[in-house]
Amino acid sequence: GLPVVYSLSGGVPELVGPDAGIGVSSPLDWNRLHPPDPGEMAAAVLQILSSYEDYARAARSRAVENFDVRPWLKRHEELFESLLSGANCSLNLAKFR
Question: The whole model's pTM is what?
Answer without folding.
Answer: 0.68
